[in-house]
Amino acid sequence: MRNILSISILFIFGIAIEAGGASLPGDFIVNIRIENKLTHRAAISRCELLEYKADSTVTVAKTFNYLGGHSQISFEKPPQKGQYKLYISPGRLVEKSNENSIWSAVEPDEAVAPTIVDIELPDNASSPYDFPTIYISSRKSTALKEVSVTASKVMFYHKGDTLIYNADAFVMAEGSMLDALIEQMPGVELKPDGQIFVNGQKIDNLLLNGKDLFNGKRELMLENLEAYTVKDIAIYKKRTRLGELLDYNTGGEARVMDVRLKRQYLTGFLGNATAGYGTHSRYMARLFGMLLSDNFSASAYAGANNLSDKKKPGREDKSWSIDNMDKGVQSLHQAGVSYNAQGFAGKWELTGSAEVERACTDIINNNNTETLGNAGNTFRYDWKKNNTGNLNVSTSHNFFVKLGSWGNIDIRPMFKYNKNEENESFVSAMSRNKMDNISEDLVSNSFESGFDSLPDLMNKSKKSYSSKGHELSASLGLRSNIKLHRGTNPNALTIAATVDYDNSRNNATDRYRTHYYGVDGMSDANYLKRNPNNNYKLDLNADFLQFFKFRQIQLPVTYQYIEEHKDNKSDIYGLPTGRNRYLYHDDITGRSDNTGAWISSLSYHAINKTSDHILQLNPFTGSLLNSRTHYLFFTLHAMLTFRHNTLDFTTGQNREYHTRNHIIPYIQLTSQWGTPQKWEYILNLWYYVRPIDIMNLVEIPSLDPLTSHRGNPDLKNSDIYHLNFNVNRSRGQQRHDITLETEYIKEPFGYIYMIDMINGYRSFYPTNLGYNFNADIRYKFFTRFGQQQQFDISNATGLHYSNNNGGYVKRMDQISGREELKLNWRKSKYRIGVFADAEVSRYLYSNNTYDNITPYKIRYGANAVLNLPCNWSVSTDLSMYTRGGYNVDKLNRTDVVWNARVSKSIMNGRLMFAVDGYDLLNQLSNIEYIVDGQIRSETVNNVIPSYVLFHVSWRFNKNLKK
Question: Which residues, 6 or more positions from 954, have their beta carbon under 8 angstroms from its beta carbon?
Fold first, then answer.
């Protein structure tokens, strides 16, 4: 009885509220009725009236509960079809209570896909208007002879120009963060450095509920925001500050990924804490908290671990690929805060962050390099042990203010301090012939026994290196947009200025012990290096923009002036070696004190000055065609830079002064056309000039007695031509993406390696290498199938061709093919997937002193996430890696990698216990393989060893609104 009374009261008050809302002047009243398609009864629903703005963003104009009969909604009558849509979430009526009252509300049924209806009104419609009855289907779980049939949730759909991914459609392991969710989304690629691409297009900003809460540091959000809090993720274009000021699409809108939280997490406090310890003394701890409100949000985090890698078992990506493993073993300690505050009606906004980080890394690698030289091939073997420690403290802020209706201003201060230290030991040997049995111990011991034990060697050397330093940098930026004319064809002026300064100091000691073939005894050298650097940069910008409403044509004219000054020194002092007091007595021309004698021939002072005058003409046609069936956009960006570059370079008694004047063009043409939510074609054409680094004109002294870096005053700039053509099609839960990309580089910059075949002395000579050409074609496909859409399959096919011309190898061609295939089964709380991918490359050399090679990689396996009864969860992945065709036999092998997690949550999921096993079969390694026209290099790095980690996680949240 009380339920019936509650429904009646809510129904009466709902009608009264809607009717009251309809009485506002200028509002258009529409009567809405929603029925179940099968029963024709009123479908209790949670409804949102969505308004689609000109900049492709979506806002909720009104939210109401539909309980039966007619419901009146009021809004501004759409001037065109599709401006409004009604988002209907079928649900059920529930009672809620607090200390003072009991009320009824509609709770959407998350197992049922929402219904989206265009609000289209006839031109002659009068208020109030009876909208045609809306019929919806409500497919729910139904028990039929012990068989449960469940409707599949929609993974992604379009609302106008906005692409939306439904977070609840993806099966996540307990404790998964935002990065694990994004990696599952079809058409989305998350790079290891945090960059995100959607259908091949780069995401400029990652937002949370439309705000940049983390001040551009997307890794914090990706690694700390728990996936269970996310409602959906929207991809759209966001207007610039100037566009907001003019209420106009100015071009250059940022493509953003907006992570939108579930209703219960929109305001309040969210947090999680995790701590764990495992075998091999592995440990981890993390604390994250976030406060969300309408006008102020803040987050804080702290963490410590020595895991080297953040990936989790059971993921669909190739986190544990042998090619993608992090180098070395790292311990990381960090903490930080970020905030976002907004004034009333967005009149001002203040964002900022501060963080401190301490990272220590130990790397051990073994490198084998075959080099084609002027007199034959040489083989170099290196063994390196390196450990580094870095302390970083940084803070940045952005203060934005609206200056009435005529302008706005951004102020951006930044400060950063870095303290670093490094220690390295290095053993190297070079030979004329390939040596399969050579080792670090064999080379090190031969320093005592001489060359007799290794007669094929040309030289051998040992090096020890130690350094300490610091860097201090600061920046201040100002940017202001000023509206000059508001009329039909508005115009505006943008003025910006940025000043950057950095100062660094580094002191290092280098000790070399070298033995050349045919030379008795050793050559010892011991140095102290001091590197003081002072740099500053000034950037001034003035931008006038004229807009024309006709087809949204934009004609901006920009002038920019950039001045950069780099003052770099390298002072070298000779230190006692044990054999001689100082090295190179004849080079001692400076003072002698406690630090040793200054060696002028190895020291240098470089003053590099650059001034740029940049003129940009960016005619932009926003819309040549824009209808419900077709659209066509066109952008032309042209930039011309006049650069004056000088270098004052002094070493020993020699002083060189170089001047380079460059005219640097840049042209980009973009065209985008297609049918909304069906086909889309995107064409990008670039031409630009890449200027040379003026430091390559001079010979920079090298402390390595086996190596020199020559200069080349005849270096030329490189011309680059680039084409990217992308076609993508969406049809329901099916996607097709085709990309064609080509690049032609005329006069590319590179090095020729000059090698003395008697003693192995190497000389690096910078030069222009003829031309390079690269071409790629990629096809990606994704679809769902099955009676309940419980299966999804995706594949990626790619072909690559490139040729490099120049150097001793007159031409090297590379042809590569790649195929990836993934099949997943998802049902309720379970996901099981299988995958396979293969890549094969063929390297062809015009010079017959290099053998053509065909390396290949094959990977296949399975992964699963099983959320079991009683809040148990299992996630695991098993991968088989096979490699072949490499020069080093130990790289041609098959490895099996297995990771697993078992977890148990209690207290309604607030407390979780988990055990993670990483590389349980102990086979992970890190492999790098580099091939170009003159070298083939294979490097094996150490990685974190196999371990098992036990950890406990606690999640907490508190809603501030009652």
Answer: 272, 273, 274, 910, 911, 912
Total-model pTM: 0.74
Q: What is the pLDDT of residue 24?
A: 41
How many residues are listed for the chain in this entry? 962
Q: What is the pLDDT of residues 175-223, one digit of tens each?
A: 788 888 888 888 787 876 678 888 777 888 888 888 888 877 788 888 8
Percent of the chain with pLDDT over 90: 29
Q: Mean pLDDT, to the nearest integer, of 270-287? A: 91
Instruction: Categorize the per-residue pLDDT at 867 as very low, low, confident or very high, splitting at 50, 70 and 90.
Output: confident
Whether pLDDT at 592 is above 50? no
Beta bridge partners of 162: 159
In 10 A of CB 960, how many CB atoms? 12
CB 901 within 8 A of CB 917: yes
* 254 contacts 265 by C-beta, under 8 angstroms: no
DSSP per position, 165-228 = EEGGGS---TT-BHHHHHHHSTTEEE-TTS-EEETTEE--EEEETTB-TTTT-HHHHHHHSBGG
Task: Show Cβ contacts of residue 508 under 8 Å, excluding neighbours closer than 6 positions.
Answer: 465, 466, 467, 468, 469, 528, 529, 531
Does residue 616 carry a pLDDT above 80? yes
Residue with tokens 């997937």: 833
Mean pLDDT taken over the chain: 81
Structure tokens at 224: 């700390």
Buried b (16+ CB within 10 A) or exposed e, 62-92: bebbbbeebbbbbbebbeeeebbbbbbbbbe
- What gap in Å lies between CA 403 and CA 482, rounded to an integer? 9
Tell me how crowded residue 869 is: count the other CB atoms within 10 A of its CB: 6
For 69, phi then psi, to 5°, come to 65, -140
DSSP 465-530: EEEEEEEEEEEEEEEEEEEEE-SSS-EEEEEEEEEEEEEEEEEEEEEEEEEETT--S-EEEEEEEE
